[in-house]
Amino acid sequence: MFASAFFIYTMHLDSLKLTSFRNFETLQLTPSAGINVLHGKNGSGKSNLLEAIFVLCLGRSQRGNKDGDIIKNEQDSYRVEGTMHDGDRSIEIAVAVMRRGRKQITINGVKSKALELYERFSVVAAGPEDSEILAGPPSVRRLFLNLYISQQSTKYLENITKYSRILSQKNAALKENIEFDSYNYLLAETGAKIIIARQLFLKTLNKSAGSFYSKFSNNGELDIKYKPSALEEIEFEVDESRIKEQFEARLNEVKEQEMILKTSIVGPHRDEIEFDINSFPARTHGSQGEWRSAAIALKLSVYELLKEKRGFSPILLLDEIFAELDESRSAAVIDSFNDLGQLFLTTALEPPARLAQKALYLNIDSGQVEVVR
């Protein structure tokens, strides 16, 4: 069970240790429980450090990278260790991955599953790659949904995991020309739950993100539309049995096409989100600055949503978010940083003075970190 939204307590990272992670051979860090500014040249490892914190919290990269790609060159494994302050407790976490793909997660020395990390911790990451949420392929938008709805509901994570397993079995059956109708029933049953969770999440996010974006863009408008591939009707619908029925009907409609293509083409794994900026499709009409502002609005909205749902402030990771924002937009973003928990902010430039003056200032150079002030 998640904490009540009516009781806010603190959660923050007390210590971090890396071994063979990206460009870090070894690293030990004791961050501030408040604001941490990570300063350094591009390529120094600032983004990698944020990725390591995300991996420690949830057991995976926020960038969608494969575990093996994170291991430092010529090494056989990486290890991320840390101590998390959770209310009045200290929790020891370790995530280790072998190059051949075996992953081990421990909490207080006990072998654990990634699901247990999602149950205990919460983290939101924003960076330059988030423009892809607005302008990139649909898979990026689905990753965004899965990462953050799973932190709001571990039941959603269980359903996504189950759905992916059934989908793999169906695709294998399609490739072998084996009967697959039983998989369609199971996909519709689990997929209906996923669709409802996405609808509810995006409905809440649409209002909140629109409000943030208006502040960042001189009253600009941001609108989010969910496009589930399994439903012909795209109006908001939370009737699980009806969604399941429509899902099964769509699967029957595309059955012959799937048999020809040898793959499943309808379901949450093919869902899409459409973003409109000032009533125009963001993907084709948005500027780089608009994409960045919208992406930051999305992530701050997710942060507020998770804080309310979980009853504590997630760890917030902001990677070069001011690099492509003008002074007025940067000021509007900073004004939105109310009642933050622990924040890690990377920058190749001098950080905004209003943040730097109350932050632990760390310099990163070639995989080494030095406390400046």
Indicate the CATH architecture of the largest domain. 3-Layer(aba) Sandwich
| Classification by helices and strands | alpha/beta
Report how far the terminal alpha carbons are from each other: 39 Å
Strand order of the largest sheet: 2-1-4-5-6-7
Largest β-sheet summary: 6 strands, antiparallel
CATH topology of the largest domain: Rossmann fold
CATH evolutionary superfamily of the largest domain: P-loop containing nucleotide triphosphate hydrolases
Beta-sheet strand percentage?
15-25%
β-strand number: 15
Mean pLDDT: 91
Which of globular, elongated, flat, extended, rod-shaped describes the shape? globular
Helical percent range?
40-55%
- H/E element string? EEEHHEEEEHEHHHHEHHEEHHEHEHEE
Query: What top-tier CATH class of the largest domain fits best?
Result: Alpha Beta
Could you characterize the architecture of this molecule?
The protein is an alpha/beta fold and about 375 residues long. It folds into two domains: about 1-120 and about 310-373, P-loop containing nucleotide triphosphate hydrolases (Rossmann fold); about 135-310, Glutathione S-transferase Yfyf (Class Pi), Chain A, domain 2, CATH 1.20.1050. Helices cover about 45% and strands about 25% of the residues. The protein has 13 helices and 15 strands. Strands 2-1-4-5-6-7 form a six-stranded antiparallel β-sheet. A six-stranded mixed β-sheet has the order 8-12-13-3-14-15, with helices on both faces. Helix 6 (about 155-175) packs across helix 7 (about 180-215). It is globular.
